[in-house]
């Protein structure tokens, strides 16, 4: 019998699945085979074998350690996605601190210190011990787990804290004995099964050898040539080239660039350097990409990134000769002049409508639009890895469409944008201790003035010409670009963005124009400082309210005038009056009738149905479970997604379902769409929850970098699995669901399931896949 998981043994007869995969079953025979291979895994640390040992250790760290220790929310700032992070060590100072009164010190890996000694001065302590490797913190954490493994069955032991904002135990070498006595089960991997003996032995041998880094292969001549071509292109001497390069840098500074499409490409990032092309990079690190680099002469360079990409921060962007030609067509081929280059004065640099006023507006919009998923992904993943501030300002799932860049749009009129630049300014990057309420009111009034000016412009340009904007102003991807339709899904304090419209008709939708897309980037990406003071982060969150409402109001303009007010009031039930009675809601523009002819009692669903059929890629066929699931599974999933109600409130935000059976080994994602009366308020979110409006979205494949739960379900049991979800009423019901189908943190097959899901993730997303994050995985 294949012990794939804890199947119900009380109410359902257990099935013998002789043909099902057995990767979840940990048997004595397999353990013996692994131990027999130990001599092959543990190699003497000679010069000839050191690289092999480092590569094997790197793979283990990638599969077992990076799942918790990556990006800014790595416990104790121990970032293991790069060898430099291991050498840097750990620091007990929290990066995410919503109570910080002043901006914190920067500790960005690769940026804010170079070399081990420099990081020690910044308060990082070592987790390796070169004199006695067995005394290093990392080694002792691994040994502690081997000596005290988690129980292989039953619930997780008490004492573990998996809260996101838990108190962290950042133990140093001289404190370790007491730590081990107080928390014997807290070895690494924390709250997860121990490494297999051969994995542990490999890491021990590697640590004993001095923890050498994996050696990167030299850059191929083709890559060197491509790097040289890019650096020549981005460092042109004329003003147009220089302004273009600045625009590119301020929008791609977080991108993981790849210059050639390979299964395992070399990753790069775009940086500013004091040294010219051909010389080693002399990094000019600033808090924000538009800050003064401190030099009149500097260069844009491509810096190699020796990292394991983590899904929560990975933003891949193709950077090849075809892309370079496209930039040329956008910014260098048009006939225009840049008389003087903008400086880096704080009042100008943070306002892209002033900084880049000389660049053709349509070219700027095309730059953002044609890679809209990447552009939005910047704010979803952004400079913070998790949406500490920005994400409780959006609904749990909504669809996004865009203005056609070839249609008449005030925001694509350079003169209009120049007039409105003052009203479009964003909150300054403040380090103060309190929000300037007077300044805040100026921002609010400025946004209102901009919305009125835009409505008046449209009135003159469209209505006076006898035109009323209809479907033609919505970008269809030019018939071939799937970035025309996006879905954004919030998962409490993380989120995902994918191409296409996934799920059932959402509660809200956004229609995004050029200035809205640009402001989202500068508010939540270029200008957002995860190390910033609480006041800066709060201002960013509050201003995002304006941008969300603007996108929603744009969308409402396509619906019958008689429907708009009712929908708006439904979206903002119990919201502050400033949201419910938004000035634009009562404007003349909102009273203008749409030219579209609706025939159903639900115009919103009808309109979004048109968009799903019209926009390229909107059908999101790759995420449609109906194309891959069996008929019985389709019926079950259809029942699940159509059943709104409080039973769904028991589910975590993101669940990965591994469906197995004869000839079937597939992944599906179950997203919990939480209901709220409104999302226009910063605090007391629980008081605005409406569990009776909760729903779930099921997709084929994996969506979400932070899964909360793995389920393993045999395909024949999927209908029963769905019925068990529909029957959830109490925490006892949830415990039984997890016992029957769930993979606990301490399940002996946890890592095997993890490995399989990562394989499916890579097959699904290719270069866009990365290592998943388990910091939010439930403990029960």
Brief overview:
With 780 residues, the protein is α/β, with parallel strands linked by helices. It has helices at 28-36, 38-41, 50-64, 83-88, 116-121, 137-147, 176-182, 197-208, 221-234, 239-252, 321-332, 346-349, 352-355, 361-369, 372-380, 414-420, 437-463, 514-526, 534-556, 561-571, 577-580, 588-591, 603-614, 631-642, 718-726, 731-741, 750-765; strands spanning 256-258, 267-273, 299-304, 316-318, 397-402, 486-491, 494-499, 509-512, 654-661, 664-673, 695-700, 709-714.
Structural features, described:
- The chain is α/β, with parallel strands linked by helices.
- It has helices at residues 28-36, 38-41, 50-64, 83-88, 116-121, 137-147, 176-182, 197-208, 221-234, 239-252, 321-332, 346-349, 352-355, 361-369, 372-380, 414-420, 437-463, 514-526, 534-556, 561-571, 577-580, 588-591, 603-614, 631-642, 718-726, 731-741, 750-765; strands at 256-258, 267-273, 299-304, 316-318, 397-402, 486-491, 494-499, 509-512, 654-661, 664-673, 695-700, 709-714.
- Among the domains are: 41-208, no CATH class; 624-768, Nonspecific Lipid-transfer Protein, Chain A (2-Layer Sandwich), CATH 3.30.1050.
- The chain has a four-stranded mixed β-sheet with strand order 3-2-1-4. A four-stranded mixed β-sheet has the order 7-6-5-8.
- β6 (486-491) and β7 form a beta hairpin.
């Amino acid at each position: 019998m294949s012990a794939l998981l804890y199947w119900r043994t009380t109410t359902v007869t257990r099935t013998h699945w002789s043909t099902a995969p057995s990767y979840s079953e940990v048997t004595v025979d397999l353990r013996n085979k692994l131990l027999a291979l130990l001599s092959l895994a543990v190699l003497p640390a000679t010069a000839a074998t050191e690289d092999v040992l480092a590569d094997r250790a790197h793979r283990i760290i990638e599969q077992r350690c990076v799942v918790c220790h990556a990006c800014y929310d790595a416990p104790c700032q121990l970032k293991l996605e790069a060898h430099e992070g291991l050498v840097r060590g750990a620091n007990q100072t929290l990066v995410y601190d919503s109570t910080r009164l002043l901006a914190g010190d920067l500790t960005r890996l690769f940026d804010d210190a170079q070399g081990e000694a420099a990081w020690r001065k910044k308060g990082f302590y070592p987790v390796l011990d070169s004199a006695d490797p067995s005394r290093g913190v990392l080694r002792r954490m691994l040994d502690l787990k081997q000596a005290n493994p988690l129980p292989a069955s039953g619930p997780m032991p008490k004492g573990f804290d998996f809260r996101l904002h838990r108190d962290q135990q950042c133990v140093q070498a001289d404190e370790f004995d007491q730590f081990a006595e107080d928390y014997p089960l807290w070895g690494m991997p924390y709250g997860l099964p121990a490494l297999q003996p051969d994995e542990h032995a490999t890491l021990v041998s590697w640590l004993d050898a001095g923890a050498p880094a994996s050696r990167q292969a030299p850059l191929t001549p083709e890559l060197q040539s491509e790097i040289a071509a890019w650096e020549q292109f981005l460092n042109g001497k004329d003003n147009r080239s220089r302004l273009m390069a600045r625009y590119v840098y301020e929008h791609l500074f977080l991108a993981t660039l790849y210059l050639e499409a390979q299964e395992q490409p070399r990753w790069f990032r775009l940086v500013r350097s004091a040294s010219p092309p051909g010389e080693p990079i002399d990094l000019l690190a600033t808090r924000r990409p538009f800050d003064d680099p401190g030099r009149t002469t500097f260069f844009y360079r491509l810096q190699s990134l020796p990292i394991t990409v983590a899904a929560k921060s990975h933003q891949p962007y193709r950077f090849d000769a075809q892309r370079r030609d496209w930039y040329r067509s956008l910014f260098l081929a048009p006939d225009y002049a840049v008389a003087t280059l903008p400086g880096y004065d704080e009042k100008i640099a943070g306002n892209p409508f002033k900084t880049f006023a000389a660049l053709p507006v349509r070219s700027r919009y095309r730059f953002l639009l044609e890679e809209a998923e990447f552009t939005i992904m910047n704010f979803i993943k952004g400079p913070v890895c998790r949406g500490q501030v920005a994400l409780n300002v959006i609904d749990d799932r909504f669809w996004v469409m865009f203005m056609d860049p070839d249609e008449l749009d005030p925001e694509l009129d350079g003169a209009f944008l120049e007039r409105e630049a003052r009203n479009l300014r964003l909150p300054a990057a403040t380090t103060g201790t309190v929000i300037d309420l007077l300044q805040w009111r100026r921002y609010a009034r400025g946004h209102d003035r901009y919305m009125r000016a835009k409505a008046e412009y449209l009135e003159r340009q469209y209505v006076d010409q006898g035109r009323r904007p209809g479907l033609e102003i919505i970008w269809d991807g030019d018939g071939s670009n799937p970035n025309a339709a996006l879905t954004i899904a919030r998962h409490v304090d993380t989120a995902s963005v994918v191409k296409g419209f996934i799920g059932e008709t959402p509660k809200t939708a956004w229609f995004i124009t050029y200035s809205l897309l640009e402001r989202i980037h500068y508010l939540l990406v270029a200008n957002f400082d995860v190390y910033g003071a609480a006041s800066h982060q709060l201002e960013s969150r509050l201003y995002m309210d304006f941008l969300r409402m603007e996108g929603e109001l744009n969308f409402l303009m396509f619906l019958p005038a008689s429907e708009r007010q009712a929908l708006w009031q439904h979206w903002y039930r119990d919201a502050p009056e400033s949201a419910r009675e938004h000035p634009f809601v009562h404007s003349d523009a909102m009273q203008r009738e749409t030219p579209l002819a609706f025939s159903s009692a639900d115009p919103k669903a009808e309109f979004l149905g048109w968009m799903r059929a019209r926009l390229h890629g909107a059908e999101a066929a790759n995420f449609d479970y109906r194309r891959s699931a069996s008929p019985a599974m389709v019926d079950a999933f259809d029942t699940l997604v159509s059943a709104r109600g409080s039973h769904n409130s028991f589910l975590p935000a993101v669940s990965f379902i591994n469906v197995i059976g004869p000839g079937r080994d597939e992944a599906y994602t179950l997203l919990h769409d939480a209901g709220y009366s409104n999302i226009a308020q910063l605090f007391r979110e629980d008081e605005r929850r409406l569990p009776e409006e909760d729903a779930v979205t099921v997709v084929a494949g994996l969506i979400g970098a932070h899964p909360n739960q793995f389920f393993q379900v045999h395909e024949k049991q999927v209908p029963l699995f769905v019925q068990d979800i529909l029957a959830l009423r109490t925490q006892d019901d949830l415990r039984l669901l997890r016992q029957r189908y769930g993979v606990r943190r301490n399940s002996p097959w946890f890592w095997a399931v993890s490995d399989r899901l990562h394989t499916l993730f890579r097959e699904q997303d290719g270069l866009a896949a990365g290592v998943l994050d388990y910091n939010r995985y439930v403990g029960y």
